[in-house]
From TrEMBL:
Keywords: Membrane, Transmembrane, Transmembrane helix. It comes from Thermoanaerobacterium xylanolyticum (strain ATCC 49914 / DSM 7097 / LX-11). This is Prepilin-type N-terminal cleavage/methylation domain-containing protein. InterPro entries: N_methyl_site, Pilin-like. The chain crosses the membrane at residues 12-31. It comes from the Bacteria.
Length: 154
């Protein structure tokens, strides 16, 4: 068994806790504050919702082209989300997406987005806008090809 000699030094538990506490305070001050959880001002959260919307639009388009399943996307009447529906004698809701408070969604010409079996949007292209208090993202669906993209700086 090895014993510590009088001239050897080490850290006591109190010294170690003090150093870790000071280091933690410095790190917390140095890290910039994020507004991710505040949907009204978070640009990152708006981008994430835009990418999810694009993914869902492409899903509806894919189902219409390759699986001949007539899905369509409908913007909620309060502009705080959207639905993916399947038509029939009774409309079947495939997905419901509700946005957090502070984020709204608008379309320039229709509240319903559907695609032909060729992939072109019916009746034509449109632009969907996602807004919070700081930023606006425009998602465009091109009329002839049905290509879905974000316009502007994102």
């Amino acid at each position: 068994m090895r014993y510590m000699k009088a001239n050897e030094s080490g850290l006591t538990l109190i010294e170690l806790i003090t150093v870790v506490s000071i280091f933690s305070i410095i790190v917390l001050i140095a890290v910039p504050k994020t507004d991710f959880f505040n949907a009204k001002t978070s640009e990152m959260r708006l981008k994430m919702l835009a990418y999810e919307l694009i993914s869902d639009i492409r899903y509806v388009q894919y189902k219409n082209i390759y699986e001949n399943e007539s899905l369509y996307l409908t913007i909620q009447t309060d502009h705080k989300g959207y639905y993916i529906n399947k038509p029939g004698t009774m409309v079947k809701r495939v997905k419901t997406k509700k946005f957090p408070d502070g984020i709204t969604m608008y379309s320039d010409n229709s509240a319903q987005i559907s695609f032909s079996n060729q992939g072109a949007p019916i009746p034509g292209g449109c632009t969907i806008s996602l807004l919070n208090s700081n930023k606006r993202l425009d998602i465009t669906i091109l009329p002839a090809t049905g290509r879905v993209m974000i316009k502007g700086n994102y």
